[in-house]
Amino acid sequence: MRICGLGSGTRQTSRQVLRSSKGDSADLPLMRRAHCCGAVFSRKRNLRMPSAYPIPQELKVAFDHALSAFDNWSYGAPAPVVTIDRDAYTIETISDFVMNFRDSAPKATYDHVVELAKAFRSGRQASTDEFADPKDYTYQEIGQCLFKLCSARRDYFRQAVHSGI
Fold it and tell me: How far is Cα 103 from Cα 115, in angstroms, rounded to an integer?
């Protein structure tokens, strides 16, 4: 069972993953474990609640790779993916996973996201959306910032294709 919407697998919501997980979370594949440990939702409003578990080391490394992939993503190139355990995940998927964790990120990771946001705000891709720097050093805030940047860049590329830029 795959979590992301890549390839021929089916995309699952966090709720479906939580319902389908059984047994010790250490027996689950990394990304499924990250979802089970991190994605706890409020029943009323579908809000993301922070994880009580620490962010897995593999996910930290994947997030750093996602930052580099975003930084190197150029117009006309397909959306970059990051590989974990031989499975490819989009930058947005990796960002979504790390948003489940309130662990503090290294200063270098925070600074990298701040630089990406600053470059985005001052570039041609800047839109009417405000891309504020993350509020704190948590993976949750940093992941949210990268997720927004990635979505905005994808929208910009889509608009550029339609307008012939």
Answer: 21
**Nearest-angstrom CA–CA distance, 24 and 96:** 23
What is the per-residue pLDDT across 37-84, written as a single tens digit (0 to 9) for each?
A: 444 333 333 345 557 789 999 999 999 999 999 999 988 788 899 999
Q: How far apart are CA 87 and CA 133, in angstroms?
A: 30
Q: How many CB atoms lie within 10 A of CB 29?
A: 14
Residue whose entry in the numeric block shows the structure tokens 């405000």: 130
pLDDT digit string, tens, across residues 107-142: 999 999 999 998 888 876 665 556 678 999 999 999
Distances (CA, A) of 21 to 80, 86, 122: 29, 21, 44
- Amino acid at the residue 79: A
The pTM score is: 0.68
